[in-house]
Design brief:
The chain has about 350 residues and is an all-alpha fold. About 60% of the residues lie in helices and about 0% in strands. The chain has 3 domains: about 140 residues, Orthogonal Bundle (Lysozyme), CATH 1.10.530; about 60 residues; about 110 residues, no CATH class. A hairpin with a 2-residue loop joins strand 2 and strand 3.
Length: about 350
């Protein structure tokens, strides 16, 4: 058993958690050394204290939260050395209930870490944003756990790479460089978020660079220094290109336009089948300038024209919205879910 190993495991976990962070892509929101705001609010409320910003958390509060809400909740004192670290860090990173589920399936370090990594890899957009950091964290925890258990360990090399979830001057410098070349990396704020991730993917594609998509390797600094401004590939994009590449807003607006066009055609056909001539119906437009009491009568006799006018107006509105959507895409104001696919063509 690993009774008394809390301080050592906490030090390892805090190394991966870092300091204060309010990453725009993190659903947890404001976080201080791994403790999110809502968790801190709940803990202080349970102890009869008023809520306050999590960045003001005190050292004794931090340790009590980690011990009571994670270490004791997972009964880590009853686990073998090394396994206690795996379970504790997984509970902090992915939640107590999920960590309990993995404990029920795996009793050893490697199988447990494999389950944890498999879950993280299935998180879709969050994996694309934070996956590189999560992979390194799980690998680091695996190695530390083996050291604690006295078994073999594989050292993960430090390659000075930049990946989603990181922040600092190195990230800000990369944002400045890519932005200067025309890549849509978002605000120059020193935070490696989803927009910078997409910009790195584009740079890798444009320069035929190998490596994990969205992870900036130090080997890319050479191609970056000699790179030319990104070609204005978006300028030639059309609404059809966005739809074919899977852009959801474009697909929905195009579908709405087709539905309205079908409705317009159906109303015109229905009127034709009733035997009234189009000329007679159009002549009714003159009554608009007649006294207002004739308006209701005109509408009753030419309801299909009202439907047609509404359809035409809505189609015009959809086309205007779609045009602005496309223009925003061309100007890099909008990243678009289909960005990589369109620009790769």
């Amino acid at each position: 058993m690993a009774t008394g190993n809390f301080e050592r495991c906490l030090a390892v976990t805090l190394k991966w958690e870092g300091g204060y962070c309010n990453h725009p892509d993190d659903p947890g929101g404001p976080t201080m050394r791994g403790v999110v705001q809502r968790e801190y609010d709940a803990w202080r409320g349970k102890h009869g204290k008023r809520v306050r910003p999590v960045h003001q958390i005190e050292e004794d509060e931090l340790r009590e939260i980690y011990r009571s809400e994670y270490w004791d909740a997972m009964n880590c004192d009853g686990l073998a050395a090394g396994m206690d670290l795996c379970v504790f860090d997984a509970a902090v990173n992915s939640g107590v209930q999920r960590a309990r589920g993995w404990c029920a399936q795996a009793k050893e370090i490697d199988p447990f870490c494999d389950l944890r990594l498999g879950f993280l890899q299935g998180l879709g957009r969050l994996w694309r944003v934070f996956g590189a950091g999560w992979r390194r964290r799980v690998a680091g925890i695996r190695n530390e756990a083996h050291l604690m258990a006295g078994t073999s360990v594989t050292v993960v090399p430090h390659d000075n790479s930049l990946h989603a979830g990181m922040k600092g001057d190195a990230v800000k410098h990369l944002q400045e460089k890519l932005r200067g070349l025309g890549y849509p990396c978002g605000a120059v704020d020193g935070i490696f978020g989803e927009q910078l991730f997409r910009a790195v993917v584009l740079f890798q594609h444009d320069n035929d660079l190998t490596g994990e998509p969205g992870v900036w390797l130090s080997a890319y600094n050479g191609p970056l220094a000699s790179a030319r401004p990104m070609l204005p590939k978006r300028a030639a994009a059309t609404a059809k290109d966005l739809e074919q590449a899977g852009d959801r807003p474009a697909k929905r607006m195009n579908l709405l336009q087709r539905i309205l066009a079908w409705l317009f055609g159906a109303s015109a056909a229905a009127q034709a089948l009733q035997g009234d001539s189009v000329a007679e119906s159009v002549s009714g437009l003159r009554m608009i300038v007649e006294p207002l009491q004739g308006l209701a009568e005109w509408l009753a006799g030419n309801h299909w024209l009202v439907i047609a006018a509404i359809c035409i107006g809505l189609i015009a509105l959809v086309r205007l919205i779609r045009k602005e959507h496309l223009q925003a895409y061309r100007n890099f104001d909008y990243q678009g879910s289909a960005q990589t696919q369109v620009e790769a063509q």
